[in-house]
Design a protein that fits this description.
heterotrimer, A mainly alpha, B alpha/beta, C mainly alpha, A: mainly alpha, 2 domains, 4-stranded mixed beta sheet, two-stranded antiparallel ribbon, 8 strands, C: mainly alpha, 63% helix, 0% strand
Chain lengths: 460, 264, 213
């Protein structure tokens, strides 16, 4: 056996181990220095922005995707650009410009391991926060789900910001460069997202989800990505000065995608078909239908309305269902009190004040079912109010009534006091009825809804 | 073929302007294999020369050839830079990197292949005696260790041309002795240019001395010749080389009209 | 470098008054210039027909201007020779306090004057409060991260709560979304005042974190 036979395997093994131990530039740049901090800052900012608005997006995919997009583009992207700028200023701060100038690798090759880590960490911070928001929503959100394309396009935008920020940081050696990029970015993006003409608005990465119920056409995120990435790559190529003509390729991609976006304009956003759908619980009478965008809230809504529904047992002439679709409720339908925008009645998958919600539902239930609401008749109004209050069983309502009474007494407003007393008497009469008597009376009351004549409202 | 037939470094009429100041004035010089000391008072143009050779600063006029390539030809630069080692006077570094990571980063910048990088980094660190601190962060190193890390990064590609600007600043006497040994070792295959103020380093490690003054060559010769110039004990200085240095400088100032610096 | 005395472009340079030299060592002339430009830009951004009713135009300006002022003040806390400074006989805390206090007062006054219209609806009051709070954060950050990076935490925080322009002012949001309150909310003022006092005190006592130059 020759020496080489003996030596060869060992040598290969040491070499592979060495190669593995050898720190590659990208890995080193990712683990050391500023980029991890940038990722942490982006994660914190993203989480804080989402947490601050949690009442308004939790339980709705529509709101969640809108807010994720806004938080990524308006909050995280200026920070990422500033982080890139700071990283770009590093060579100047650390006085390594001379060392880099003697490197065999050109500016373009040097650019990537130095600039990419900030982008990677920022995207990681964003992805973590966005993923957490999506997970939180998973158990009870309704609607058509997050738009993966937009999530990815936003991640690309963060990358673009980091890379462009790096170039800016390399070129502008001022201490205020990075904060200027961050704060100018905030103000600039906020202004373009709000008040740019339609054509240009389509090019703004921050624009897009104008409401929870719109979705982009499938190619919008692609075109947005091409537009941003093309521009960024062109700038990086110019900075790296590999071959000036190479700039034309990404520039033409950017121009093509930009033209697509401008041409698409507001037409790139269509109504989410889910907003026209409802999910219903037909086990109750009236049945409860919730817009599919907030479908996850159905059990909560049912629980909130249940005390009222129990009191309606055996009553005839009721609307068939509460509806929550677009447009006015049809005949035999009552409008479900507004669940969206979130943050008012519904927050974080719960009905924040079930009594108040029930009172609004009762009002909707006893609403006149006429093309034009008949002119107010005091007796009919008082009767309706008594029915609504009795159905809602809202303790805060009674407390408020006592407060009003106190106030009226303090001001010596006899008329108001009499009014309150009359309300109370009407409610008492309703409570004092026997079960069967009340069922019959309520059936008659609800029958009057459709007649559109206040005189048909039964006497209480 | 281990070596190109031409000198490692060849300058002809190299002129460098910094704004209005003339830093190098029509310098014509060759540097062969071996260790060359670059001496001179502050502002003599030592750093300017090294920065031009390191391909960091451009020449205002004249021709610079390194390893057979004209530095004016931008396409030749990568080939030169691959064979170049450079320790700047103001050595900047990334404080968060470990020593190994930093040297490996420079190896990548010099386009060493991935397979050879690991071994090259180890060897460079061993040569400067930093093998045991390879995994320490740069920011935790003392001044002397930082200097050695700087030398290690310059050595990592086993350069044919090694440019060291004030490499011994911050080294303790023992480290300096080891460093001179290292210089002699590297100088066997490569052209090493050491700019320094410490004449003992020159006396001990350099085979040849170039004395710059006001952007011109004030003296050129072997170390022994310079020492011989300082044989007269009346000359200012405590060491033969020191005396030789003063004598050469005085002679240069007496004979050459002050061309450089007139615009200052 | 080594030229005969050049024509002096700055009236402040060349005089050997310690206070002026201190100001120059901190780059205060430039900081003042930037603050002045910022106030002008703010006035321009907040002006325009009925812009005080136009939150979409006004709130970005109200959020960005104090942040930028704080960034200018924060980066001016940089010490070029921290080692040397720490051996000085003069009481540094006093100089630091005067520097940050004077710059903040100046910035707050200039920005408050730059926003026309009602003071209590994203106007002068919100501007002063945001400037105080943001400067406090920047000063505290300077002691932890170093003066040059002192803009980062404040920018991240205010950027993040920026989306939380309140549906209804008040509630718990007054405490943590203090930069986005329209005006006279007590809790928001308390937070901003505490941040400013705390950050300034911390900086006065500890100074900016030493950075490798």
């Amino acid at each position: 056996m020759s020496d080489t036979d003996l030596l060869e395997p060992t040598r290969t093994r040491t070499r592979t181990r060495d190669a593995r131990r050898t720190p590659t530039p990208l890995r080193t740049e990712c683990l050391r220095g500023f980029p991890p901090l940038a990722g942490l800052v982006v994660f914190c900012a993203m989480s804080l922005a989402m947490a601050a608005k949690s009442a308004e997006w939790m339980s709705s995919w529509g709101e969640t995707r809108t807010l994720l997009h806004l938080a990524a583009t308006l909050v995280c992207s200026p920070l990422t650009a500033a982080a890139g700028c700071w990283q770009g200023g590093r060579e100047h701060r650390r006085r390594t410009l001379d060392l880099r100038a003697t490197a065999a690798r050109g500016a373009f090759a040097q650019f990537w391991p130095a600039a990419l880590p900030v982008a990677l960490w920022s995207v990681a911070g964003y992805a973590l926060a966005a993923g957490a928001a999506l997970l939180v929503n998973l158990p009870y959100a309704g609607g058509s789900g997050p738009v993966v394309g937009v999530l990815l396009a936003d991640a690309v935008f963060l990358t673009v910001c980091a890379l462009l920020g790096y170039v800016a940081g390399r070129l502008v050696r001022r201490r205020l460069a990075a904060p200027l990029v961050a704060i100018g970015g905030y103000a600039g993006l906020a202004l373009t997202a709000n008040s740019a003409p339609d054509g240009l608005l389509a090019l703004s990465p921050a624009a897009g989800f104008t409401s929870e119920s719109v979705l982009p056409v499938w190619w919008q995120p692609l075109a947005m990505t091409g537009w941003q990435a093309g521009l960024a790559l062109a700038v990086v190529l110019l900075y790296g000065a590999v071959r000036r003509t190479a700039v034309l390729v990404p520039l033409s991609v950017a121009a093509l995608c930009g033209a697509l976006l401008v041409h698409g304009g507001p037409g790139m956003w269509r109504t989410d078909p889910v907003t026209r759908q409802q999910v219903c619980d037909t086990s109750t009478r009236p049945a409860i239908c919730v817009n599919a965008m907030a479908g996850g809230l159905l059990p909560e809504v049912r629980a909130a309305l249940l005390p009222m529904i129990e009191r309606l047992e055996g009553v005839r002439n009721l609307p068939a269902r509460f509806e929550d679709g677009p447009g006015e409720p049809g005949p035999e339908e009552a409008q479900l009190p507004m669940l969206r925008p979130l943050g008012w009645h519904a927050r974080r998958g719960e009905i924040s004040s079930p009594g108040l919600y029930r009172r609004e539902a009762a009002t909707a239930l006893s609403q006149w079912d006429c093309p034009h609401e008949p002119k107010g008749d005091e007796r009919a109004m008082r009767t309706k109010a008594a029915v609504d209050d009795w159905l809602a069983q809202d303790s805060t309502l009674l407390a408020r009534e006592r407060e009003e009474e106190q106030w009226a007494a303090d001001r010596g407003d006899e008329e108001w006091l009499a009014d309150i007393e009359a309300d109370r008497a009407a409610r008492r009469r309703l409570t004092d009825m026997s079960e069967s008597e009340r069922r019959a009376w309520l059936s008659e009351f609800f029958a009057a809804r459709a007649s559109c004549d206040p005189k048909d409202v039964p006497v209480l | 073929m281990p070596l190109p037939p031409r000198p490692h470094i060849s300058l002809s009429a190299l002129t460098v302007h910094h704004r209005k100041t003339l830093a190098l004035d029509a310098l014509t010089l060759d540097f062969e294999r071996g260790v060359h000391g670059l001496l001179g008072p502050n502002g003599a143009g030592k750093t300017s020369l090294i920065r031009v050779l390191a391909t960091v600063a451009p020449a205002t006029a004249g021709r610079v050839e390194v390893l057979g390539h004209d530095l004016a030809d931008r396409r030749a630069l990568p080939a030169v830079r691959r064979r170049l080692g450079y320790l700047p006077q103001d050595f900047g570094f990334y404080p968060g990197f470990t020593v190994r990571e930093f040297v490996a980063y420079v190896a990548w910048l010099k386009e060493l292949s991935r397979e050879t990088t690991g071994a090259a980094v180890e060897r460079a660190l061993e040569r400067v005696g930093l093998g045991d601190r390879a995994d320490a962060r740069m920011k935790t190193l003392s001044g002397g260790m930082l200097r050695r890390a700087g030398i290690a990064q310059a050595l990592v590609n086993e350069p044919d041309v090694l440019l060291l600007d004030e490499p011994t600043a911050g080294l303790d006497p023992e480290q300096r002795v080891e460093f001179r040994e290292l210089l002699r070792d590297v100088g066997r295959d490569a052209a090493v240019l050491v700019s320094t103020h410490l004449v003992e380093d020159v006396a001990a490690a350099c085979t040849e001395v170039t004395l710059l003054a006001e952007g011109r060559v004030a003296y050129r010769g072997t170390t022994e010749q310079l020492a011989a110039l300082g044989a007269d004990p009346a000359e200012a200085g405590d060491h033969p080389i020191e005396r030789g240095y003063t004598a050469a400088l005085r002679h240069h100032r007496a004979t050459a009209p002050s061309a450089a610096g007139v615009t200052r | 470098m080594n030229s005969s005395t050049p024509v002096n472009p700055w009236p402040l340079t060349g005089r050997l008054d310690g206070r002026l030299l201190y100001a120059r060592s901190r780059g205060l002339p430039l900081a003042l210039l930037v603050l002045a430009c910022l106030a002008l830009a703010t006035a321009w951004g907040a002006a325009g027909p009925a812009s005080f009713l136009d939150f979409e135009r006004r709130v970005p300006v109200i959020a960005a201007a104090p942040l930028l002022a704080a960034a200018v003040i924060g980066t001016s806390l940089h010490e070029h020779s921290a080692e040397l400074d720490r051996t000085a006989a003069r009481p540094w805390w006093l100089w630091r306090l005067v520097q940050i206090g004077a710059l903040t007062a100046l910035a707050a006054a200039a920005l408050a004057l730059a926003v026309p219209g009602r003071a209590d609806l994203f106007g002068a009051a919100a501007m002063v409060r945001a400037t105080l709070g943001a400067t406090g954060i920047a000063a505290a950050s300077a002691t932890v991260l170093g003066a040059r990076l002192s803009w980062l935490p404040g920018s991240a925080y205010i950027g993040a709560v920026y989306l939380r322009t309140p549906l209804r002012p008040g509630g718990a949001a007054e405490w943590w979304a203090w930069p986005m309150q329209p005006g006279p909310q007590d809790a928001a003022w308390t937070v901003a005042a505490v941040l400013f006092a705390g950050g300034t005190a911390l900086y006065a006592l500890r100074g900016a974190k030493a950075e490798p130059t």
